[in-house]
Amino acid sequence: MKDLLTTSRVVTASVPVGSSKRTALKIMNEQKLAELPVVNEAGQFVGIVDQDKLTSSILLDLVAQE
Question: What average pLDDT does range 3-23 have in this prediction?
Answer without folding.
Answer: 75
